[in-house]
Design goal:
By secondary structure, this protein is mainly beta. Helix content is 9%, strand content 39%. The protein has helices at 7-36, 63-67, 330-335, 422-425; strands spanning 48-51, 55-60, 74-77, 80-87, 90-91, 98-102, 106-110, 117-119, 121-127, 130-135, 139-142, 146-159, 163-165, 180-194, 199-200, 213-214, 217-219, 222-227, 234-247, 250-254, 265-276, 279-283, 286-295, 307-310, 313-315, 323-325, 340-342, 345-348, 351-353, 370-372, 377-380, 383-385, 401-403, 411-414, 417-419. It starts with 6 loop residues before the first helix and ends in a 52-residue tail after the last helix.
Length: 477
């Protein structure tokens, strides 16, 4: 039987080689992309990967590879009681960080030191951690780590360094990669602490340029019941630290368990910081103690590289001034090989109420607003009420500042007020510290400070040409 070809048959036969050729070309392209472009991956939706069987120590030194985590994923710690956690080599991205999150029924506790090391952690969020009766460092951050968030942590009755950001091999070489940078603590509560700072990079050197830290932020955190029975230590202790911001935090009952041993402090910084809108009470310590320095690299040595302490409220404090500005020795500047130079402090719009000289302690000390040991300090628009209330008020005393090392160059003091009694200051109450309409602090701050646009409660600082003294601005009726 013969078959006669039609014109349609010819078109179909001619099309077959083209179809086959296109399929072959697509296959070749897929193979090339797979083998020649190893960075090409098939991105799936974010996943949640769980770890922890209810007890023991959790250790993943090569976490990303072992657990096959990708940017945007969540590493979830199951319910249980664990002794510690170590994670290493874990990286998200700025747009898609990795989240490490604890179940509400997960808790860490230990009576003995644990390693708890976190090397090379980048763009990672740590959330909902609980440490109870924890006698060890909670997290030690090392290596090439940056852009980290610690949120909703609860630490109860802990000892040792809680967050220790330190690597002895990480020496500043002028690059940002040789620093730790962009760390944030938010809604962290430390309640009950002995023997070590809550957040630190301490090696007790101002200028050896090891573990330099940049752009750290501590926000809406609570630190209370720190027992310094055996030794003095800061709540926050950061050396070689530049552009730190501590704001809207609460510090209370610091170093009150025994008579003081050494010099306690809530925030100790060698470098420069902005500390504003914080509340301090019943602390046997400076609220802030600085060794003022700026970093002559990476943009951290400009006109804003100064310490700024403003809109803070401190009451019932013991022994030490609210703010202490120290003199950085020339030997420390020289040791930094040109990386460091001295900088200034600005102490403005703060309220200090009912400080105590601690006259019955082993080492009676003044409890003024500012202790000045070095040059270049500006003190403006502050309010002091009932200073050193445990001894009689002395009208000849200077309760605004104390010159601990004699007269200093660059000292500017203007528009501060001291009231021997609460009644004379005429504030609303000891909760809000807001001036009454008849308060002599109202509209008494002359001259504008451009970077202070709000008060302690984020109300407008300047409702007209002038402002009120102290941390709180009276609101219009």
């Amino acid at each position: 039987m013969s078959h006669h070809c039609t014109r349609g048959d010819l078109r179909r036969w001619r099309a077959r080689p083209a179809v086959a050729g296109s399929a072959a070309l697509c296959l070749v392209l897929v193979v090339v992309l797979f083998f020649v472009c190893p960075m090409f991956t098939w991105a799936g939706p974010p996943q949640r990967i769980s770890i922890g069987s209810g007890s023991g120590y959790l250790s993943y030194p090569d976490a990303q590879a072992t657990l096959k985590l990708q940017p945007g994923d969540t590493l979830y710690i199951n319910p249980g009681v664990y002794s510690g956690l170590s994670l290493g080599d874990l990286s998200g991205t700025a747009a898609s960080p990795i989240t490490v999150k604890c179940d509400p029924r997960a808790v860490f506790t230990t009576a003995s030191p644990q390693f708890n090391t976190f090397p090379n952690i980048v763009h990672v969020r740590f959330e909902n951690f609980r440490f109870e009766s924890y006698k060890s460092t909670c997290l030690k951050i090392t290596g090439q780590s940056h852009d980290l968030l610690f949120k909703n942590f609860r630490l109860k009755n802990v000892s040792g360094y809680s967050f220790y950001v330190y690597d002895p091999t990480k020496v500043f070489d002028g690059t940002k990669g040789s620093t730790f940078y962009n760390f944030k603590w938010e809604d962290v509560v430390v309640d009950g602490k002995t023997d070590g700072a809550a957040i630190c990079n301490l090696n007790y050197s101002l200028s050896n340029m090891i573990s330099v830290v940049l752009d750290f932020e501590i926000y809406r955190c609570t630190f209370r019941n720190f027992d310094n029975t055996q030794q003095a230590f800061p709540v926050i202790g950061l050396e070689r630290c530049f552009n730190l911001e501590v704001h809207e935090c609460t510090f209370s009952d610091i170093g009150m368990a025994e008579s003081p041993i050494g010099h306690n402090v809530c925030i100790a910084v060698a470098g420069y910081l902005r500390a504003h809108n914080n509340r301090f009470t019943r602390q046997w310590a400076n609220d802030v103690r600085v060794w003022p320095m700026k970093l002559n690299a990476l943009g951290y040595g400009g006109p804003n590289a100064v310490n700024r302490f403003y809109n803070n409220i401190s009451w019932e404090k013991r022994k030490y001034p609210m703010y202490e500005h120290n003199h950085v020795q020339q030997a420390d500047i020289d040791k930094s090989s040109g990386c460091l130079s001295r900088t200034a402090s600005e102490v403005c719009f703060n309220t200090l109420f009912r400080s105590r000289k601690a006259a019955s302690s082993k080492d009676p000390y003044c409890a003024t607003l500012v202790d000045v040991y070095g040059p270049d300090v500006t003190i403006k628009h502050n309010l002091v009420i009932e200073p050193e209330v445990d001894v009689p008020f002395d009208p000849t005393r200077n309760y605004v500042y104390h010159l601990g090392a004699g007269q200093q160059l660059g000292l500017v003091v203007d528009s501060n007020r001291v009231f021997p009694t609460w009644a004379e200051a005429r504030l609303t109450d000891t909760e809000t510290f807001m001036p009454l309409k008849t308060s002599p602090t109202k509209d008494a701050a002359t001259g504008r400070i451009d970077y202070i646009t709000e008060d302690h409660y984020h109300h407008d600082r300047y409702q007209g040409a002038v402002a009120d003294l102290g941390a709180v601005e009276r609101q219009k009726e």
